[in-house]
From TrEMBL:
This is EF-hand domain-containing protein. Keywords: Calcium, Metal-binding, Repeat. It comes from the Eukaryota. The lineage of its organism: Eukaryota, Metazoa, Ecdysozoa, Arthropoda, Hexapoda. SUPFAM superfamilies: EF-hand. GO terms for molecular function: calcium ion binding. Residues 15-50, 51-86, 99-134 form the EF-hand domain. Transmembrane segments: none annotated. It comes from Glossina austeni (Savannah tsetse fly). Pfam families: EF-hand_7 (PF13499), EF-hand_8 (PF13833).
């Protein structure tokens, strides 16, 4: 089985463990607690050569922490906090926590199109496909390879 030990070690100066856990879960195609070589190839193929829809679906899976097909505000908050920790921001610092909450609020307003408190895959796809920055960033690998 493939190990993400190298991923954990590559970000020693930040707290990457929480974000690495979420990425590991998204790479674990069979949901068996391990990443097989096949899982790795399927995921990398999706991220590097998949359609915009496939890449967005993978991203949605990354954010849908409990796998129920919906992204809640708390799930989005957990991901944002993990990314902030990965970037070196300190958890439980009032200013950093406020910035993270503000970011969650902005993203949630943008993605929760019907404002019902959850983000479905349909809302996620629609909102992301309307955003030029998102679509350009998803197409970045198309020009690089």
């Amino acid at each position: 089985m493939f190990s993400l030990f190298f991923f954990y070690e590559s970000l020693q100066c930040t707290d990457s463990s929480l974000y690495a856990h979420y990425v590991f879960k998204a790479f674990d195609v069979n949901c068996n607690g391990a990443i097989s070589f096949r899982d790795l190839l399927v995921t990398l193929s999706t991220l590097l050569r998949g359609s915009v829809y496939e890449r967005l679906r993978w991203t949605f899976k990354l954010y849908d922490l409990n796998g129920d097909g919906r992204i809640s505000r708390s799930e989005l908050s957990e991901i944002v906090m993990a990314i902030h920790e990965l970037m070196g921001r300190r958890p439980h610092q009032p200013e950093d926590d406020r910035k993270a909450r503000d970011q969650v609020d902005r993203v949630f307003r943008k993605l929760d199109l019907n404002q019902d408190g959850i983000i479905t895959i349909e809302e996620f796809l629609e909102a992301c496909l309307k955003d030029d920055l998102v679509t350009r960033s998803l197409q970045m690998f198309d020009n690089e390879l």
